[in-house]
Specification:
417 residues; alpha/beta; Nucleotidyltransferase, domain 5; 3 domains; 6-stranded mixed beta sheet; two-stranded antiparallel ribbon; 15 helices; 12 strands
């Protein structure tokens, strides 16, 4: 602090100012100390009794020492004339701390004993345990035995509790800006696909083959491709090949929120082919009902649930391409619903006999179906493929190929064991 005990008169102040005009004498101290120093000088020099000229000299002196602006100094002078001080000691009101750091540590210890790592027991149950511990002589639980259940949750959010406890935070969901979260609206046009993956089981820590199942929403035209793994190396060429197998132009691609389809690789493929990508909505379990039913009625029906080693994916693919998909799309009838709306707004579905059609017959029943076909594919060629075999002939060929393939798979699996 600046010691000016030898300065008592206005003349001494003027002499000091004349001698120190070339120096910077600002005090380096706290705001409270600076305010106290200013107040004491105003009292020493009896500022309120001075003439106007003398007040100017004192004000110049105070500003030179403290570094106050004229506005700041006027506040101190106004407070002095009212018998007050600025920057007085202020005692902030605080609530009494009932629960100490020791209580938080004890609560964390109790939670660790009675809770798994990933989930905490309810506060009501823990509070009851604290009461019983106190009743049986453990005086450490005196305060926790009287705590309210709601405040126990507050203690669980403190830094001390989190430091001592062994809780594990849940994995945060990752938001991906890939695909639109809505239900597709084909408006009676083919080319809007429902897509899902069916896994052929695990054995001894080894993954089985994966089936990529694609179904058109309007015609139920179905393509199944088997791959060794759901990775970019295998998924990218398989998906491009599957999309090319559809005779009509693909406009929509709808999946659930699985990472095998909600990724940059699939997004790039669909953007290149000008296909809109959509994904399922939460709390709408029927968004993918069609493809889920096809997984059971087709993939699980013919290939079962048993483990099939991924090295046999190419054999399954050969059967799918040559026999299964021609049989499903040209010879196997599917049920198509007729939706009626009641006066109360409720939708009812019926499946009349005349609405059982093969996917090819359903496609032919559309208005001007040739407008939906890809370039280079005509209705004549599709009809010729449909007339090559009868339904029984196509089913018999598929069953024979399936039995031979499964026999090879089972024999090889037995050898691997």
């Amino acid at each position: 602090m600046f010691d000016d005990a030898h300065i008592h008169t206005i003349g001494q102040i003027q002499t000091f100012l004349d001698a120190t005009d070339v120096f910077d004498l600002h005090l380096q101290c706290s705001k409270r100390e600076k305010a106290q120093w200013t107040y004491e000088r105003l009292v020493r020099f009896k500022y309120s009794r001075l003439s106007k000229k003398e007040k100017g000299i004192v004000a110049h002196y105070l500003r030179s020492i403290t570094g106050y602006s004229l506005r700041q100094l006027k506040r101190h002078i106004t407070a002095y004339t009212k018998g007050q001080k600025l920057c007085t000691t202020y005692k902030r009101h605080t609530f009494f701390c009932t629960y100490t750091e020791v209580d938080k540590e004890l609560l964390a210890e109790t939670d660790n004993l009675h809770s798994p790592v990933d989930r905490r027991t309810s506060a009501a149950a823990i509070q009851m345990i604290c009461c019983k511990e106190y009743e049986r002589g453990d005086l450490r639980y005196k305060r926790l035995a009287e705590i309210s259940i709601s405040h126990m949750y507050n203690l669980r959010q403190t830094k001390k509790y989190k430091y001592v406890s062994i809780t594990v935070e849940k994995t945060q969901a990752v938001e991906r800006n890939i695909g639109t979260r809505r239900k597709p609206s084909p408006q009676g046009q083919p080319g809007y696909l429902r897509v899902d993956t069916v896994h052929q089981g695990d054995r001894n820590g080894e993954k089985g083959v994966y089936h990529i199942d694609l179904v058109d929403e309007v015609t139920q035209w179905q393509i199944i491709v088997s791959v060794e793994q759901i990775s970019e190396l295998f998924l990218k060429p398989a998906l491009e090949y599957a999309l090319e197998l559809f005779p009509f132009v693909i406009r929509g691609f709808h999946t659930d929120n699985g990472s095998e389809y909600i990724n940059d690789c699939v997004s790039r493929i669909l953007r290149r082919m000008c296909i809109e990508q959509t994904k399922g909505r939460s709390m709408h379990c029927n968004d993918n009902a069609l493809i889920e039913s096809k997984n059971g009625s087709t993939v699980r029906k013919w290939w079962g649930h048993a483990f099939i080693h991924r090295s046999f994916a190419h054999k399954l693919n050969a059967v799918n391409m040559q026999h299964l998909m021609p049989y499903l799309n040209f010879h196997h009838p599917c049920a198509f619903a007729v939706v009626t709306v009641k006066p109360n707004g409720k939708h009812t579905k019926k499946y009349p006999y005349d609405q059982y059609k093969t996917p090819f017959e359903k496609f032919c029943s559309l208005e001007k179906p040739q407008q939906y076909l890809k370039p280079g594919i005509g209705m004549v060629a599709l009809r010729n493929w449909a007339m090559e075999k009868t339904p029984n002939h196509a089913a018999r060929d598929f069953q024979d190929a399936r039995r031979k393939t499964l026999k090879i798979v089972l024999d090889a699996s037995a050898t691997m064991l």
